[in-house]
Structures are given as structure tokens and as C-alpha cells.
Write a structure and sequence with these properties.
The complex is a heterotrimer of chains A (399), B (301) and C (442).
Chain A: H1 3-16, H2 18-40, H3 45-75, H4 83-102, H5 109-113, H6 127-153, H7 161-183, E1 188-189, E2 196-202, E3 205-211, E4 227-232, E5 241-247, H8 248-270, H9 272-282, H10 284-289, H11 294-320, E6 322-323, H12 327-342, H13 347-363, H14 370-387
Antiparallel strand pairs in A: 1-6, 2-3, 2-5, 3-4
Helix pairs in contact in A: 3-8, 3-11, 3-12, 3-13, 4-6, 4-7, 4-11, 4-12, 6-11, 8-9, 8-11, 9-11, 12-13, 12-14, 13-14
Chain B: H1 37-40, E1 50-59, E2 62-72, E3 77-81, H2 88-95, E4 103-108, E5 111-112, H3 118-123, E6 126-128, H4 141-147, H5 157-161, H6 166-186, H7 202-214, E7 220-224, H8 232-247, E8 251-255, H9 259-265, E9 268-273, E10 276-281, H10 283-287, H11 290-300
Parallel strand pairs in B: 3-8, 3-9, 6-7, 7-8
Antiparallel strand pairs in B: 1-2, 1-4, 4-5, 9-10
Helix pairs in contact in B: 4-7, 6-7
Chain C: H1 8-15, H2 20-42, H3 46-76, H4 84-99, H5 113-135, H6 140-159, H7 161-164, E1 166-168, E2 171-173, E3 181-182, H8 187-194, H9 207-218, H10 223-250, H11 253-263, H12 265-270, H13 275-298, E4 303-304, H14 311-324, H15 329-354, H16 363-366, H17 370-379, H18 381-399
Antiparallel strand pairs in C: 1-2, 3-4
The chains are: A alpha+beta (399), B alpha/beta (301), C mainly alpha (442).
Amino acid sequence: MGVAEQLSVGRKLVAERPGALVVGLVGVLLLVDLVRKLTTGALPSPRFASLLLDGLVIGLAYGLAGIGLSMTYSILNFANFAHGDTVTVGAFAGWSVAYVVGGLGTAGFGSLFLLSSDPGLSVANAPLVVLVGVVAAGVGTVVLSLALDRIVYRPMRDAGGISLLIASIGVALALRYLVAFVYGVGVKGITAASPKLALLSLDGAVGMGVLGPDQRVGELAGPSEVAYYVGLPFANRNVTEVLVGLTFHQIALALAAGGLMLGIHLLLQRTKLGKAMRAMADNKALARVTGIPTERIIRMTWVIGGGLTGVAGFLIVLERGTMSFSFGWILLLFIFAAVILGGIGSVYGAMVGGVVIGVVDSVSIIWLPSSLTTAAAFAILIVVLLLKPDGIFGGVTTA
Amino acid sequence: MSETDADGGAAGPAEAEIPEDATAPEIDEPEAQDSEVEESAKTTPRSLPLRVQNLHKEFGGITAVDGATFSVEAESLTGLIGPNGAGKSTTFNCITGVHRPTSGHVYFRDEDITGLAPHEIAQRGLVRTFQIARELEEMTVMENMMLAPRGQVGESLVRSVTPGLRGSVVEQETELRERAWETLDLFEIDHLAGEYAGNLSGGQRKLLEMARVLMTDPEMVLLDEPLAGVNPTLEEKLLERVHELRGEGYTFLLVEHDMDVIMENCEHVIVMHQGRVLAEGGPDEIRSNEQVIEAYLGENV
Amino acid sequence: MSDDVRGVPDRVVDLFEGNDPLLIVGTMLGIYVLLTAAAVAVGFDLNGIVNTLRAATVFAAGYGMLVLALNLHWGYTGLFNIGVAGFMAVGTYVTAMLSAAPSSSPPGLGLPLPVAILGGMAAAAIVGLLTALPALRLRADYLAIVTVALSEMIRLFVKSRIAQEFTVAGVTLGTGGGRGINYPSPQTIVTGLLVKEPRSPGSEPTAFGEAVFGAAESVGISESVVSGLFYLVLLLVFTGAFYWLLVRIANSPFGRVLKAIREDELVASSLGKDTRLFKLKVFAVGCALMGLGGYLWIGRSGYVNDLSFRPNITFFVFIALIIGGAGSNTGSILGGMVFSALLFYFPQFVSQNLGGGSAPDSFAAALGSAGDLFAYAVANVSSLRFVAIGILLVYLMQNRPEGILGHRKEDAASVDLLERGSGRRPAADGGRPPDSGGESDE
């Protein structure tokens, strides 16, 4: 392209898409500032790495939770405002079962089920119980989603997306306060602390190992007290600290999310059901005409979406350690942000979008006070809707 | 492009006489037309209220309109026909501001209206009807009618709310209401005035569509397939009205699929094919135009 | 439009045949009867009964104002704005910051209250405009998500340390962050009639105040209830003003264009209406009203913090609007009343006064017997009422999305459209069965 052409393309860009240009500029500025902060040491790289990693992990959870929302948004054509509270129900169902199974004998069924007596579970000391909980969360949410579809959404199959949205607001309210009625409104501590896989600097050496849940790096005598310690050939550091670490809960979440996403990918690409779902996402009327059994597809959408959503809720609580009756509702906008950023209807989009939102929420603390990091994630949601509502993978079929 | 007589050749129902004074009595135009218009109509630009020049419209890779050029004379009933995919609807939408042409110009009363928004074009007196009658379903027939007129003082928020100023709003509303009743009478749907537009039958909606567009007090009306799906009795009535109104000074551009209707009613016909104007002229010329016949035959294969 | 399904609400409405103010008053009286019966059953004295009715009416009036404002956006113009709480927050906080004394914490500008109120409304309108400019072209569900995200961003900003206290042009202001802000409450507008120093508690009553308090005391009504009643009157005046304003907007060519925008924006613009301008105006006006409503009602005690403006409020207002009938101003008031007094306040009242204190403290324990379960339910009715409201909303969307009054023909015009010239009304309500088009059958 000649200079003149480049100028005119540039001028066109400024004139027609000023928003995109501004966003691009902001992104570049932030990147430049980040590099500056890292190189001058204003932001220590371990801290940045931690922020990034934490954001990544929680972002995977958002993404996992978002797949269900993305699928129902594209196949049923409505924004499901009850999605967050579905996450909550899944988490509560899963943990109630986990408590009952894991706390058997330590307390009464009722108080275990209602999460009032804590059997001190963690992935390290009761991995199978946690697994049972994951499955229970998934199954419970599937049952809930199918029931809701039958009672609420199916009778309204032909109503517009807005009517369905409003109905889902009602469902959200009912679910949330049903949980509050049964479980109470307080915040509950759910898990016991878990061991941590950490890159640490201790006694002048850098190495990697597993810190027990009760171990504080400052109180250690030396690397020998760290389980599975492996020395690494990095430069000497005169500090005693964890450079970067991931709790086992975080690792479990990441592995589960990754595995499930792979499973969904295979489902959508390799199976007949998957192909039918993609067809329906594209054009429901056409799908009906060509004989794809739409009600069955819709049911499968709720099953798959619901299952993933419940598991995501369970894993989020596993990672955080606490939960309350409204935690899913509070997450709703994050999940919407992930889905819309990634592109409604795109499973990969939901994952990518989730990771981006998670990282933004975590990393923006470099520039913003803590009360505003959430606002940053929401700002992205608004900007995407205004500039490119299709999202990153938008317009693509469900895959 | 041959100029035809304003009232020659068309084998339509008996027309109302065009008054000597070409200022139509019903229309309160700020600029009254001269009485010499009739004489100079054929040569001055004023006789061409609508001029489309070299219009192009592309959607992605598809060229829907590929260099269309035509004009419409004042107080005429001009028809625009063409086989499916000829580009009629797209041209229509480019004229009325729904689409922005890729290139080319549209002139209305010598003003370049290319690329203006639909409301700006309608405000200038060029209005359209919709092929699938778009009635505002949860509003009554009367509300639909009262919505249409231009220049309503009550559309200002301040004027409709402030106690002192509301009087002028009420006054104008009363006037407009009477005009609405008269127009409804004309189309014989006055008995439906209080009905929700959504409850009307298809034919009644077409009548409402046309009645409503007249309330805007237009210079020129673009009719987008007004007779589609309409029974013969209603069709006759609608055409009667159109001819009457043409006689009162309105200009009509009629897009229709039904060739016979166009041939029988319009004194000037424009044929589009594959995005271009294939031929223009009186019905007889068009009927015997070989290219036109081929284009339509090609469609029927 | 099914006129055939006549349910109980329709029958009640028919009783008042077209007289809307009477319908509103009548419904309120009905609610009063219910509440009085409950209060008497619980053993309240006159003071208690009056106070109960007062509190319920405050709710009804407050909700009424906000539902009316939301009706302008959603019911009339079809703009799906679920950021109501955010605009309320802007109005309330700006009013608070402008009127708080420089000596209070956080400091304010100490401006007179009327100025501060106007400032709050203007700020809400401006924020509304800034939102509307890019966002109004979005389709409805995207607009909903944008507005709720914005509402949360406003709340988070108000809570943040940046906004907590800041200095601009040499003047220090603040929102108080998570700790909230104190400012002259709307009550002080009327308490000035009753006491000499409205802003200091325990101040001497004025001559008028003495007379009123004295009279009230003779029937057993306390001073605080009297003050509360005066504030209620103020609130009702504003609610009435909102109603008057919105009815005027609705019954005008302006309102007509709004309805057309809701129905089919392309038609409206093809008829020459600059729909974008209309939407911007309406959005700004609605937001200003929400800002005012926020101050007068949520801010009525003279203290707010970020938790006062969580999205739940928006959804409650929305549900009230659906119940009453989106698109109808009278419906908005009725919905506000029914929702707030019956679904929100009444259960709370029951719970606070009937709960014997011997209710089981966990759901598991409550499963012991039906009596236990009932006691637990009553004690936790604050959660149960929302379950009921959620279910009600789903029911309405499935069976009666137009709510109580949404189906009524409310012509948007400043004159009676069915009148003709000499004032006679020809049968124009589709009296004759619709035929296949224009055939004259005289």
C-alpha cells in the first residue's frame, strides 16, 4: 500500500470507528506502562505473575460457568438472568452432598447438609469426597435446569427474548431466596485450607515444592521442610517469600475446567448431537424444518449447560473457600462479560472471554484501587456491547 | 427518455379534473406552485420532483443496484417494475434513507437527499408505505393516523407539558383529528377508528397504511407493493383513491410486482433488471420493448 | 388483546369505570383495611396502627414515583433500562454532597436543599444522557445488560476510595465510600414547620408544632409519628406531581411518538420523527425523575451508603411495573402499591410481630413438624416473600404479561380521539365486525 492509501485507510478508521481506536490506544498505553513498571521494579515480576495466574484460574471458572449461558443465549435466544443463581444452587447442592459424605459420623445429617458443621474438607485430605461433590453439583444443576425449562421456559417457547429474560429475573429471585430460606443468609466457610504448589525463595535459593496448608514460608527453617522440594537454577534472592503459588484447589479447578472444555469441544465437533446443536444455534426455524428434533436439542442444551454450570459453581467455592446465598448473583455480570466478550454461542469464546475477564479483574489492581477492579471488568462488558456486540468469536456457530 | 403527457394514454378510471390553478386545494404548501407550472412542467426541473442518478448499492459482495438512473414527474403516477432481484426494493430503500447508497445521488425537489436519515427525508415531504403493512399494532387506528402529520407542536416535550403552552397543542390536535376523520371516511374505515391496529384484517391494514401516509401531507408518495395480497374489490378501491389523489396534486411512484396493474394505471413506467434501468417510457412502449420481454421471460424459465 | 379473559383484577378495575384517581384511592383504602386488621390482631394501639399505615404508605408512594419513572422508559418507549438503582444513586449522592454541611463527615457544599435537589436531578439526567448517547441504539437485551453493568459501576465508584473524599477547585467533597454519607433528609423540608431547628434533634417545637403535637397526643399519637406523617404528605405531593407530569406526557403527541418508537421505530422515523432525539429526551427526563425519587425515598433518613442502591431495587421496581401494567401510568401506581405494601411490607410486618421467638433456628430443625415449619416460615418470611415475588413474576409473564392495567386502551393524545367535531362519538370501537376490507356495508 502506498502512503496515500495508508493515510486514507487510517482516516477512514478514525472517522468510522473512533471507539475501536480509543480502545486500542488505551490498550497500548496500558501495555507500555506495564512494561515500564516491570522493568523499573515498581511492580515486582513475581507479584505480576501471581496476579496473572490467579486471574487465569478464576477466569477459567468464569468461562466454565459461561458455557452454559452462552449456549442457552444462542439456542434459546434469551439472556438468562437466573444463570448466576443456578451457579449458587449447584454449589450448594454439591457441597451439601460432599459434607454429608465426608462428614459422616462427625455430626447429624441435617447440620451437615445445611453446611453448619464443618468437616474440614479439602482436595488434599478428601479428594474422593470432593469428586463426589463435583458430580453431585453437576447432577443437581442438571435436574434443576430441566425442571425450570419444563415449568418456566417451555410454556413460553414462542415468547420473545425479552419476555423470557424477564421471566428469568423472576426465577433468579425465587432461587436465590429459596437458598436463603433453607441455608440462611450468612457467609459460610466451606473448605479447609489446602496445600500449595509454590515457587519459593528460601535461604537464598529458589526452588519449587509443596507447602502444607499450615506452613508459613517465613517460619520454615530451610528447604528440607518443604515437601517435594526441587531446587531451581535461578539467581540468588535475598528474600524469604513465596514467589508464585497455586493452591491445590486452584489446580483442581484449572484441570477440571480444561478437561471439561475439551470434552465439550469433542462433543460439539465429533458427535451428531453436537452438529445438531450447532445447526440450531444458527437457525432454529431451519433446523425445525430439516427435522432436527429441536425439543430434544433444547433439553440437551440445558443438560450440558446446567451440568457445567453446577460444576463451575462448586469449583469456584472450592477455590475461594467460602460461599453465601447470593454469590452466584454477584458473579452474574462477570459471567455475562465473559460470554459477550467471547461471542454468544461460542464455547471457546466463553472460555477465552472468561480468562480475559478474570485476568483483567485481577491485574487491573496495578492501576486501580481495589474497589474499582470489578468496575474495570464491567467497563469491558459495556465497551464490547457498544463496539462489537458479536464479541471475539461472534457470528461463529456453537463451537 | 420521452416525455409523455401528464394525463395522456393511461387507461385508468375517470380522473378528477386537474384544476387550472395547479395549487392543490387540500395541501397547505409554504411555497405555492405557479399557475404556469402546467406549461413549463415539461422543461423546468420542478417537474421532476424525484431524480435518481447513477445509484449503486453493494451489500458485502453482492451488487443489488448497479447504476440506476431515472426520474419521476410531478403529479404523475409512475410505475417501477422488474423481475425478482431486479433491485427495486433496494432502490426504494436507498431513496427513503433506509440504506445509504454506495455511490450515486438521489434528488428530491432539486435537493440532494442522498444519505439522509429516513426521518429527514420524510420531513421534506417524501414518504413511503411499507410492503408488509407496518401498523403500530398496540395503538389504535386513530392514534396511527394522528401520529403521522408533520410539524406537530405537541411533539415538543416542553410544549405538551407546560400548562400555559398546552393550549396550542390541544388546538392543533383538534384540527388534526378532524382531518383524520375525513381521511378515514375517504378510505371507508372510519368505523374502525377506536380499534387496535393489530386487530385489523390484512386489507384494512393496507387502507390504514395509505390513509396514514396521507396524513403526513406529502409532496410525493412511494408505494411499496400496496396491492400485494389484496382482493380485487379492494384493489380497485385503492387504485381509485390513488388516481383521485394524483388528480389533487400528489405524485406517486408505485413499485409493484403485478405488471398488469402498472400497465393499466401508470402513465410512465420504469423497468429495472439486474440492478439497472432497462427501459423507461409509456406502457405501450414498454409492452413492446424486446429487452423487457426477454427479461421477464428469462425469469419465468 | 384478549378482552375475553376477565379475571378478578379486571372486575375490580371495572368497578371504578374510568375514574383513575378513585381507583388508586380505592386500592389504597383496601390495603389500609387489611393492614389495620393485621395491626389490631397483633394488638397495636392507635399510635401503632397509624404508624403502620404511615409506613406502608411511604413505601407505596416511594415505589409509585420510581415505577412511574421506569414506566416512561420501558412501558412507554420500550427502553429496557434496568439501571434504575444507578440513576437513583447519582441523584441521591449528588444532592447529598451538595447539601451536606462542610463540617459534616464527609464534607459537602452546604447548599440550600432546593438547589441541591435540582443539582441531583440534573446530574442524574446528565449521566442518563451520557449513557443514552452510545447505548440507545442497542437492542433491548443488550441495553438491559449495559444499564445494569453501569448501575453497578456507579455503586462501586461511590464506594471507592477515590470518591470517598476528593478536592476539586479548592473545595473538599466526598461520598463517604463504604461508610456512607450524612446530609439533610427530605424530612427536614417539612419538619421546619413543626420544630424550630429541623436539623438538630430534640429542638423546640414552633407554635404550630406545639398545637399539632398537642392535638395528636390527646388521641395517643406520638410526636415522631406526627413528624413522619408530615413527611408522608410531602412524599405524596411529589408522587402526585410525578403522576400529573407523566399523564401529561403520555396524553400528548410527544407520548404518541414514544409509543410508536416502542412499537416500530422504523415506521416512526419513516413518518418524519427524529426518534433518536425523542429517546434521548425521554431517557434524560426519566433519569432525572429517578434521581429525585432516590433522594426523596431511599434517602429519606438522611443517610445512605453504597448498599442502599444495589440492583435488587431496580428489579423490585421493575416487577412492580409489570404487576401494575407497563404502559399505563395508573397501572404504575397500582403496581407500586400492590408490590410494596402487600408483597414487601406486609409480610415483613407479619414476621416482625407474629414471630413468637420460639421458631426453630434452622431449616433442618423446622422439618420436625408442620407447626415448626410454619413458625420457621414466619420467622424467615423476609426470604420467602421474594420467592413468592419471583414465582409471581414468572406466572405473570406466562399468563398475564400486561399486568393489571396494561391492556387498557389509553390513547396517547391531548384530546379525545373518538370525538368528532360537534362532540358526538360515532360507534368507532369496531362495533361492526371487521370485514375483508373497506367494503361499505351501509
